[in-house]
Design a protein that fits this description.
Number of strands: 31
Helix content: under 10%
Number of helices: 4
Largest sheet: 24 strands, antiparallel, barrel
Length: about 550
């Protein structure tokens, strides 16, 4: 059956360029290939593999016919590109599924991604840029018994790694149930109310055989919780609380502490103004399907970030912050305001202001047992019980203004206090690293299809490797071509021999649903973060080719 399904899907893939549908169905998908030719550059710490050439490639193919769907993903790592997890290797099918979508019931057999609530209790997803994929292998079902109620069930094993073209699945089994209720849809008399209310509840458990000869390890570990969402006019509130029972793992030192996760978002939004305040409390909430695995593998749940994901190169890759695995208390304030157009401060087109402030601290550990050798409970953690031990502080203010039909200017100021002893991102400093960054982003529309964008960035710090500057010039000839050159310069390094330039040139071509980009030059080491999940990126020197296509 596996070979038959694979043959059908491959046949669909080969025929997609000739016709958009097959036998009344429709084929969709996408392809991406990243190829690198790497050089050894000992000055910047870049080392080429023996093969000199590395490649990541994948193709997703989905076939939909009425209420039925099937799909697969073919993956290839020969070997994986620089900085990618080493357990990705070979060529093979990394994802496949069969699915039925009805009005009353939907179900999937094979591989699937899903999420309960915010994901604090269960989130199965993939992020190719990070090499993260915890796809489930088993079955999922969704039932809608009445309008406004949806019930979910998931059961399966998680993807652990991809070795020699074969998916290796986790030893542990994940089981979960979720209920979501939309009261405005459920109660007819409430359907037109300005107050919108939804609520949900979840329970997720894992099973893994015990493999410790000295401790009594629970084979079944569960987490459960609920959530509520309120909307009224421009106001909103989302709140979720998750409780996890004792889950001794290698990461927490095999203690029998319980865990909790609390996430609250409140805010207000109207035309020209948006305010959002987030509060988060996490303690012992790492939830994996294997108790001895570390890193970014086999997460059953997702630890939400309460810090901004910065897109500019210096603030985004030098000191990015990811949630602390052990636990933390975090707060974030985000304010967006548009000064009205045709006013003295707003100018002809208006001026956009964005203020973002976030802080993360350690949590208080209350003594809860005097007999640790018996119960192995090391402390009691309480929601939002914070200490003055700072993990991270992030302040940034952005001002964007369109001056006229040709000029647009954006200026951003950042102030970071980063605790490198908690989330280590550099070997050249310890303790708190304070830094200030200014970014100026200017866009000039030369002609109808010709645009020049320039970025100038500077980072000041008295620790780590000192001050940095970055410059980017990007020229776009719409709708097909773009060319860019970027230089990062560590001019403030205390070691004069390490005051290096990292110059990278790029050119790209877009046509239809295809994009081709080629870059050559040097890339410094750093940290890549997406949604609060990070991986280190090594220094490289060489050529990178990237091709993407959707169909």
């Amino acid at each position: 059956m596996k070979k038959v399904l694979l043959g059908i899907l491959l046949g669909s893939c080969l025929g997609v360029f000739a016709q958009p549908s097959l036998s009344g169905g429709q084929v969709t998908g996408n392809h991406e290939t990243t190829f690198q030719y790497l050089n050894t550059d000992t000055i910047i710490g870049a080392f080429a593999p023996e093969q000199k050439v590395v490649m990541n490639s994948y193709t997703n193919v989905n076939y939909i016919n009425g209420k039925f769907a099937a799909g697969m993903r073919l993956e290839s790592y020969l070997p994986a590109i620089a900085g990618y997890p080493a357990f990705y290797s070979g060529t093979g099918v990394g994802y496949k599924y069969l699915q039925y979508n009805g009005d009353f019931v939907s179900f999937t057999a094979g591989n699937f991604y899903d999420q309960f609530g915010s994901g604090m209790i269960f989130r199965s997803y993939t992020e190719p840029a990070l090499g993260l994929d915890n796809v489930m292998n088993g079955a999922s079902i969704k039932v809608r018994p009445v309008n406004g109620i949806e019930l979910k069930g998931v059961y399966g094993r998680q993807r652990f790694n991809f070795a020699d073209g074969q998916v290796i699945w986790s030893e542990g089994i994940v089981r979960g149930l979720d209920a979501d209720v939309n009261f405005n849809d459920l109660i007819p008399s409430f359907s037109e109310s300005k107050l919108k209310i939804t609520a949900g509840a979840s329970i997720v458990s894992k099973y893994q055989p015990a493999n410790n000869d000295t401790l009594r390890i629970p084979k079944n570990v569960a987490a459960y919780g609920g959530r509520i969402s309120l909307r009224y006019s421009g106001f909103f509130m989302d709140a979720e609380y998750i409780h996890k029972i004792n889950d001794p793992t290698q990461l927490n030192g095999y203690v029998y502490n319980t865990g909790h996760g609390a996430l609250i978002n409140v805010g207000y939004s109207r035309k020209g103004l948006g305010i959002n305040l987030t509060a988060k409390s996490l303690d012992n909430m790492v939830f994996r399907s294997d108790r001895v695995v570390e890193g970014n593998q086999l997460f059953i749940n997702y630890l939400p970030a309460t810090s901004n994901m910065h897109t500019y190169i210096l603030p985004g890759t030098l000191y990015p912050y990811a949630p602390n695995f052990a636990g933390e208390i975090g707060y974030q304030l985000d304010v967006l305001y548009k000064i009205p157009k045709k006013t003295k401060l707003g100018g002809k087109y208006g001026t956009d202001l964005n203020l973002n402030v976030s802080v993360a601290t350690d949590r208080v550990r209350h003594t809860s047992s005097e007999n640790f050798d018996v119960d192995r409970i090391s402390y009691e953690g309480r929601p939002f019980d914070m200490t003055d031990s700072l993990f991270n502080f992030d302040f940034n203010l952005n001002i964007t203004r369109k001056l006229n039909k040709k000029w647009k200017v954006a200026a951003t100021y950042y102030h970071f206090i980063f605790n490198n002893d908690v989330n280590k991102v550099t070997n050249f400093a310890s303790g708190y690293i304070k830094s200030d960054i200014i970014v100026l982003d200017v866009t000039y529309k030369i002609a109808r299809k010709h645009t020049l964008r320039v970025e100038a960035q500077n980072l000041w710090t008295e620790k780590d490797r000192g001050d940095w500057a970055a410059f980017l010039a990007e020229y776009t000839f719409a709708p097909h071509w773009f060319v860019a050159v970027m230089d990062q310069w560590n001019y403030g390094n205390s070691n004069e021999n390490q005051r290096l330039h990292f110059v990278l040139g790029s050119v790209g071509y877009l046509t239809g649903n295809s994009r081709i980009a080629v870059s050559y030059g040097k890339q410094r080491e750093g940290i890549l973060c997406i949604g609060g999940v990070c991986r280190p990126v090594p220094a490289t020197n060489g050529l990178t080719f990237n091709f993407t296509h959707t169909f």
